Amino acid sequence: MVFSSTVFLFAFLPCLLVTYFLSGERYRNYVLLLFSLAFYGWGEPKFVFVMVAEVTVDYVAALLIGRCGGRNWRSKLLVALALALNLGLLVYFKYTGFLLQTLNAAFHTEIIIPNIVMPIGISFFTFQAMSYVIDVYRGQVFAQKNPANVLLYVSLFPQLVAGPIVRYSTIAQEINNRKTTVSDAAQGLERFILGMAKKLIVANNMGALADAVFKLTVLTTPVAWLGAIGYTLQIYFDFSAYSDMAIGLGRMFGFHFEENFRFPYISQSITEFWRRWHISLSTWFRDYLYIPLGGNRGSWLHNVFTLFVVWLTTGLWHGAAWNFVLWGLYYFVLLALEKFFLRGFLEKLPRLFRHAYTLLGVIFGWVLFRSDSLRGCARFLKAMLIPHVDLHGMDEFWVYVGRFWPFLILGVVFSMPVYDMVRRNIGAFLCVKVGDSIAAGMKYAVLLGLFYVCVLFLVNSTYNPFIYFRF
User: Fold this and answer.
1) Does the N-terminal peptide bond of residue 114 adopt cis geometry, omega within 30 degrees of 0?
2) Does a structural domain hold residue 452?
3) 80 in the Ramachandran plot: left (φ > 0), alpha (ψ -120 to 50) or beta?
4) How far is CA 460 from the centre of its chain?
5) How many domains are contained in the chain?
6) N or C: at which end does the chain have fewer Cβ atoms within 10 angstroms?
7) How open is the CA angle 85-86-90, to the nearest 5 degrees?
8) Is 243 exposed, middle or buried (0-12, 13-18, 19+ CB in 10 A)?
9) Residue 426 lies in a domain
10) pLDDT of the residue at 429
11) Do residue 193 and residue 162 come from a single domain?
12) pLDDT of residue 69
């Protein structure tokens, strides 16, 4: 089930809201838990048991670690066992096929590759479960005694299948004691509708453009660049839209998730880009891998090795394929160059040049990320970098521009913090001119109209995937 579907919008969410707010406060966590499990089990019910089994092990491990008191050998053994199980499940479901294919290719063997279906969102909920056990071991949170609350933390439906990766410490107090205010509900509804608009109006249309171009067997330079820009906009609006909707839904039920995107395409360096893109994943790797490996401590050679491990892991986290491995190593090279050689040079450049350098680096990275094979990636990059233009290609280019230009413009404009500035300025102006209550009414009338437009796009489109569901 996806947020931008008629089943979710007109059946699941209304039923949940009615049941949740009619229930007494002591039962609301159980209502959320049951609906979250139903949400996850909608497509493939058997994988609910995989998630519940993983959470059960982590719940018991955290409870035992809490009773051990301190970082003694018993606690370390329990952490190691819990992490081994979590990572073992992740490797089995996500990487078995990739590992066996690699072995077959490297050693010319004929090992039969099993057809293993990967549970949706396993990368996300596994990282959440692992962070809970590690934080209990570190003494940053207390072990939760109620197993239903631990399961709720991991399975909470807004962030379950595509993030953001929520730390237990972020919502521990709200799991046990929270109040849903009118202000929270209103802000959550606004955030949800805006996220849905980003997804249905911009991301889906940019996805249709990118898919059309990446399927072409003959590429000219203008068409290749158009497709790369289309995918660059698609993946941002697709993933940030899901995060917006998740944050908005969480707010409706009294949970305050942290931001996952802060306009990454306005960055002035690759380093800044990764401080703004998929923040919950970047900080997860920083706190649970980069710093434990030594971080910035030690020699520059050790720093390089640590960066290499983190970005190799980041690439593998995104997918079991060589293009994802190379994508991670691509960013390792760029970030290492910035960290050790380019920082001073970049700071002296005009903002426009820094921005152009960053966007070009990100766009080339997304081509590697999107390509189905390394050969296809090389072909696409060749079309972008070696000028090739013919009459048919230009006709094709203008056909795509004519079809998608409104969504390209919307994507470029709203990848910048335009909406926030417009909302603040117009909101302040209207509050002065017509009063707070009328201004608020006008805002929600606009949001209602935007919701109606989203529904029109939804019912008239058959293209509605979420990219990060497969990670």
Assistant:
1) no
2) no
3) alpha
4) 26
5) 2
6) N
7) 115
8) buried
9) no
10) 55
11) no
12) 75
Give the closest residue to 124 by CA, choosing from 97, 76, 156, 96: 156
DSSP H or E stretch at residue 316: helix 300-318
C-alpha 213/C-alpha 235 separation (Å) is 15
Judge whether 198 and 169 are in contact, CB under 8 Å.
Answer: no
**Cα 351 from chain centroid (whole Å):** 28
CA 118 – CA 97 distance, rounded (Å):
11
User: In the Cβ-directed half-sphere of 223, how many Cα atoms lie within 13 Å?
Assistant: 26
Token reading at 437: 């209550």
DSSP letters of 22-75? HS-GGGHHHHHHHHHHHHHHTT-THHHHHHHHHHHHHHHHHHHHHHH-SS-HHH
Amino acid 113: pLDDT: 87
CB proximity list for 302: less than 8 A, separation 6 or greater: 294
- Other Cβ atoms within 10 Å of 212 Cβ, number: 18
221 and 158 fall within a common domain: no
| Residue 106: per-residue pLDDT | 85
Asked if 174 and 201 sit in the same domain, the reply is no
pTM: 0.92
Kindly give the interhelix angle for 221-252 and 182-197, rounded to the nearest 10 degrees: 160
Residues 156 and 198 reside in one and the same domain: no
Q: Which residue, among 219, 236, 233, has the nearest Cα to 378 in the 3D structure? A: 219
Q: How many CA atoms lie within 13 A of 318 on its CB side?
A: 22
380 φψ region: left (φ > 0), alpha (ψ -120 to 50), beta (else): alpha
Name the phi and psi angles at 468, rounded to 5: -80, 0
Residues annotated as catalytic (active site), given as ranges: 318
Q: Per residue in 282-315, pLDDT tens?
A: 999 999 999 999 888 878 888 999 999 999 999 9
Q: Both 280 and 364 in a single domain?
A: yes
What span, in angstroms and rounded, lies between the C-alpha atoms of 468 and 471? 5
- What is the token pair recorded at 330? 């691509």
Residue 449 exposed, middle or buried by CB count within 10 Å (0-12, 13-18, 19+): exposed
- Domain extent, residue 87, equals 6-178
Could you tell me the end-to-end alpha-carbon distance of the chain, in angstroms, rounded to an integer? 16
Provide the token pair at 234.
């698609």
- Matching residue, tokens 């009118």: 182
Residue 399: inside a domain: yes
Give one word for 156, left, alpha or beta, with left for phi > 0 and alpha for psi -120 to 50.
beta
